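Model: You mentioned two targets. I'll fold them one after the other.
Researcher: Yes, keep them separate.
Model: Target one:
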Amino acid sequence: MTGGARSYRCIALGALAVLGLGLGLGLTLATSRSLQPLPDSFEHLFDHAARHTFLDRHGQPLNITYQNRWNLNDRVYLHQVPEFLQNAFIVSEDKRFFAHRGVDWIARAHALVQNLLAGDIVRGASTLSEQVVRMLHPRPRTPWSRWLEGFEAAQLERRFSKLDIFEFYLNQVPYGANRRGIAQAAAHYFDRDISTLSEREMLALAVLVRAPRWLDPQRRAAHLDSAIADLAARTGTAAIERQPLQPASGQFGHNLEHFLQFASTRVDAPRGQPVDTTVDIELQQKVQRILDTRLQNLAPRHVQNGAALVVDHHRNQVIAWAVGHAGRDDMPYNQLNAVVVRRQPGSALKPLLYAAALARGWTAATMLEDMPLEEGVGPGMHTYHNYSRIHYGPVSLREALGNSLNIPAVRTVQYLGAQHFLDFLHRFGFTSLAGHPNVYGDGLALGNGEVTLFELVQAYAVLARMGDFKPLTLLEHRHRQTRGRRVLSEDVASLIADILSDPGAREKEFGRDSILNFPYQTAVKTGTSSDYRDAWAIGYNDRYTVGVWIGNLDYSAMHKVTGATGPAQVLRSVVNELNRNRDVRPLYFSEKLVKKSVCVATGAPAQEDCRTREEWFVPGTSAQPAATTAVTLRLRKPSPGLLLAMDPRIPDSHEYFEFAVTEADDIRRVDWFVNDTLVATTAGPRYAWPLRRGQFTARAEVITGAGAEPVKTAAVSYRVH
């Protein structure tokens, strides 16, 4: 070799050495900077993660640990873990655990060969110590992360004993459904304590950590059986193949994460201190089971979600808070807290609507017209219908509420005014209804404003407590610090309860043998929003108030599920459960109410020539022939901003639009004005106006009774295209 060549080779080797040294230094520096500090003690992790421990009303712990990064409450000492289960984990996850110093280089070499031959990553070879590092320092699953985990695993083993690391692993290893550790996994998958597990169930826990979804006992039983058989062969316990594996159903539990999320916002106790809640865990389990079963039965009708709230209104305490399919990771949108999601209540607000009217002097015998009704909504007209599409003519307030008739409800809110009814609802705690009254209009009576199940049950609890409002409490002893305020008289609240618990009052629409007729006196109301997007059932008896919502949290429509056909069955089952083993009393009834005879057809005081019935009255009120006398006269059609279009298929000379004023007693004459020009005079509240294109202003002057001064309506602008 010449001197020049030898010199060139030395330079090349030197350059490579410098490059290698530089890369080594760079790798060392990058590794040093990327390594994260390890805790001085595993217990310190739990101190930093400590949250309030929530207890039910009897001192039973609730499952808040499923929401934490760490398993805080279901930890076991290593000596409490069956030896067979310990050995199963060692064989399955890290058979040289007690021999290596954090990294099993032999296992890594075998894994490298297997992965190269397979052309994919089929084996990871992480030791238990490296898996603990991954729990402590979550990183993306990359080669760089594996590099760092090896160094941190070695540091971990220098800081902690093998037994401490193994105990931490067994208590914190993640499973499905947010469970951590073998104690939570045993309860979730097999409904057992670890001390009662069979050997086959122990092997199942050992292999489930590899892929909880892929090996799920409910949905991947065959995959799990194969993995168990493989591990059984490796542990020399193949005989356990004959042992049956009986996984828990996983359908019904008492996952209270939604309740705890809400309750956590109301806790003012020091961090980590136990918090006594008002929930009864035994009742919670039953309510959850009832709700989930009903949702499963309704699934073919495109029903996915639901919620139920149970309140002891004597103590003003929430005792059950159920969200449909809570804790299941295969159900849509069940992470949302449906108890406090805003939805349209449909007819569920009608008891409060009529309570407001009774408070203004109406009576249960006040007559309301249930006739076809068309009103302006935005730039168009809306025709109101009852659910059955049947109109019953004059009906009493009792029948209007009992049968949940829509048109009498609209006439009632027109009498009260949307502003007055909205203020009334605010006094009952409906903070979700924050819009201007014009946003809701007459539709407020039919539930076009969105409210929560929590607000609705809270309001019905006020009715059950005879008009005494208190915010619902979720924490023990908090109810003693809350003073109530009266928002409704006992007399009116008694009348509402009497109507809602009267089978005869709802016979027209629901029939005599309705599912709403409970064994014991119970005030019940249902609601269904437009296009079957929401179905509600709320009821109360002498002690409890229960509310149920069913629907889809993606706002898709159900297949003709109403309050009576969907949630009413849940309501009935829950109330029956509440009534078990107790003396049920009748609903409170005010002694001040006065019974009077009224004419069925008119609601007027009973006379010899009419068919009569008995009705209850608030002292100081009396039977009225009709409610229309109190309605403010206004132009009903056209409505402000109405847009009309001429029909090209009809000759212009034959096209008409009906003008109408609100119904009132004894209308003698109506003068109709368009653009301040008198165009017609009629003897009734309607006029067929000949259509023509343009921008117009309409008003009317109404004369009621002989010699009365004309009542002038406000002018209304509209356009015809």
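Model: Target two:
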Amino acid sequence: VRFAPYRPPDISLKPLLFEVPSITTESVFVGRDWVFHEIDAQLQSSNASVNRGVVIVGNIGFGKTAIISRLVALSCHGMRMRQIASDSPHASPKHVDANRELPLTQPPSAHSSITSGSCPGTPEMRRRQEEAMRRLASQVVAYHYCQADNAYTCLVPEFVHNVAALLCRSPQFVAYREQLLREPHLQSMLSLRSCVQDPMASFRRGVLEPLENLHKERKIPDEDFIILIDGLNEAEFHKPDYGDTIVSFLSKMIGKFPSWLKLVVTVRTSLQEIIKLLPFHRIFLDRLEENEAIDQDLQAYILHRIHSSSEIQNNISLNGKMDNTTFGKLSSHLKTLSQGSYLYLKLTFDLIEKGYLVLKSSSYKVVPVSLSEVYLLQCNMKFPTQSSFDRVMPLLNVAVASLHPLTDEHIFQAINAGNIEGTLEWDDFQQRMENLSMFLIKRRDMTRMFVHPSFREWLIWREEGEKTKFLCDPRSGHTLLAFWFSRQEGKLNRQQTIELGHHILKAHIFKGLSKKVGVSSSILQGLWISYSTEGLSMALASLRNLYTPNIKVSRLLILGGANVNYRTEVLNNAPILCVQSHLGYTEMVALLLEFGANVDAASESGLTPLGYAAAAGFLSIVVLLCKKRAKVDHLDKNGQCALVHAALRGHLEVVKFLIQCDWTMAGQQQGVFKKSHAIQQALIAAASMGYTEIVSYLLDLPEKDEEEVERAQINSFDSLWGET
């Protein structure tokens, strides 16, 4: 008898694959001990107003991601760090071995040949700070990087799914993993599908409550644990019209976190108002004047770079000598220019090391004065003529416009999708891509990502007074991507159809044509999308577009011919209008009604949009639907009308509005079901649920002069439940 080997059941949750191009396998980590010390002190403090979490605030390129990655590298997920760090362009693949040090290792302590400007802390203090960092890292159980050029990392459902997937892979939470394996319903609650429909419920019931219970049962260690989230500001680029961004999601959920589960998050200085609702302590990385420790960090980094490279020493020594005064002058000059940006220092030293910048006079005229100038210099060296830049510009346009990193093959096809005559040959394309390889880094999954978000932003936008050379044109990139999607042989899936809609709207290629051809550009765009794909209705009713709808893309899909009465796969096959009424998405309801959606189309349980809106208490939607003559007296399969649904859930304003509606218009039941019946049922419904306000309102309704008594009778039996 041969037995099949026993395979333990696996968890169906998969962590997202993050890769951070600006952190390579050669990155070193210098300084920042004070940051770890302060995070540690705040999280351990007994003051509940600061110990829930810490926000690290800093400008772009100031090392926020490096701090997060340093903690990940030293945590139980450290092995994943090899996926997060990009292979550095300099490392030759032959020398890669499994035992290579993790990225962001600390260099050996500073050399003493050149004295640093400030005295380093005592060894005792250094040890305490090192301990703080190790202690924090040992508490890390999950992490998440938001990257604007990789849209999935910015969406709430993916965030919830990824955090859960990492939590159940951390050794401290073995008990949580075992519970997920024992209780498949918990895993399905955390599936991407469930996370799209109700991320809050998924997170609460799939993550927070199980962890809280395991903690009470002493099945997970009684200590503090940390979730790291990098770049909350990046996620704002993908803000849905309805539904949360990761920040607003956390702001609503933080009150439900157990006190022992902390957050350490980062945000860019210019966007720090997005975190005002998070009750966290803030640490600022760009307040150079107020914080001497930042100065020491920069000093230590400069020292490290100079000492670890003889090329740098040669290229900065005046007439062959490198003495303390020369060094002091150079380092204070660079520190001032950097304003605290590690990225500026790193790139400037890279230029010096390769001999592109040689400082032979003490005026430092050749040194670029800002990150923007560093990028300008890099591009000028790489593309000395306008025509050499024109050859790669379409590639950059596509990369800038895409919602996620693309493979070379994809970019190649997109570029060619825009050619009417002739095509770009693959060899020629590869040559152009090779020229961009220092800016567009190839990731492990073979897709390309910008070397740093600041470079991507520099390509699209400049500050006042900055040179506009090398500016890209995202609109052209959107156009090429839209053409590429339109030219796919196979069918586009729902997500791709939505993406095509996004690119068509951003490309806006019919701008100014409407006067010439007499057809508005929105109709031309609708025609375009209708010729490109068949699944317009399915895309309109796809889960993501139901729960986090994009109004403009939805309008485009409807113009292209999507069915506004399409039945969805949720709420008992409810039509789209029912789902949007249930969710309270007023703009979507208005859009569907504008294009003639059936106002009384019901789900299989017999509920109409009015019933869903009344039950959920969305007065503005109830009003919209009634303006479109929704049937007030429609009964669902349980014989309940909208008024009863509102009363059952305590929505007083909706109850008042529905009673004031004109019920004589409806009368489709030939007077069998009167307003008085509904009011009587509503009274019983409200009383059974204990909604006193509604009960007293219904009992105080004015008597009518006619024979029909409208006021609810306290002792009458109602026709629905036969109760009083």
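Researcher: Noted. Anything on target two?
Model: Residues 90-100, 110-120, 705-711 have pLDDT under 50 and may be disordered.
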